[in-house]
Amino acid sequence: MRNPTIRRRTTGSLAAATAATLALVLAGCAAVPPPQVAAGPTPSSLVPVSASPSAVASTPSLATSAPVSQSASPKATPTPTPTQTKPTISPAAKKVYGSCLNKTINFWARGACVTLVQKQLRKLKFYSGPVNGTYGVSTINALINYQRSRGIRGTGVVAKLTWTALATKQPALPKVLPKQCLTKGVVLCVDEAHRRLTYLKSGKVIKEIKIRVGGFNSHPKTKQWRVFPTANGTWKVYNKMVSPPSENYGPGAMPYSVMFYPDMYVHYSPDFHRWGYSRSSHGCVNVGSLKDAIWFFKNTPIGAKVYTFGM
To answer: pTM of the full predicted structure?
Structure first.
């Protein structure tokens, strides 16, 4: 005989889980940390933006690019592991960065090292705010965008990897489309490193626009500041709404929403249109042009693939 207490608990747990899921769907723009974050593509899965699916398919792999000699020794020669060279900071750069290279800058910090970061981000065109030595919202978001562009996880904290990238003038990641974006049908390809949204149809690029993704922002209810990431992975468009309801942000906050799991939308953002990259979304893919947002809304069918990648 089943224990009625256990049954009640199980039923209660299922109801709670259902309610939690419903609340998440109504919240919008990753109001809580995304439940599933997939790793970004490996270098071997990337192809140049200009490549067509046929070009990708015809490119020989390392395993088949050369015939195997029958007269060779039956004992296979192991492939040597490539050695990764550590980036070297020049004496001139060490003079500029000084003791900052060994410091960690967290949110709301102040001082000369913050001023240095602001100056460098200005030079690289990631930051357009005042150079005031205060590590506030606009500087943190600029740093997150810089980190992602260099293949560094967008934490918003300036630590060793970020200092080294700045001091060695580490180049930006190459602009490429992963093979996951070159599949059949309509695919929305979200490149967080380059802040670009690409609309593809069976591997052919139809449209590409600038976007804004998750970053340093405050929770609409608790007012707590933290990094709201845009989850990486493969998703599907499950709904579209011209003006979806939002428990956290109110009506009309996310016009022309193309919705995909986990509770993240591609939508027009008046905030992005006004403030640019000095602010961020709460995980959604913000479009700054109303015309572009309407285009994506009209041309993206339910069930279309969405692939998000970056750091």
So the answer is: 0.76
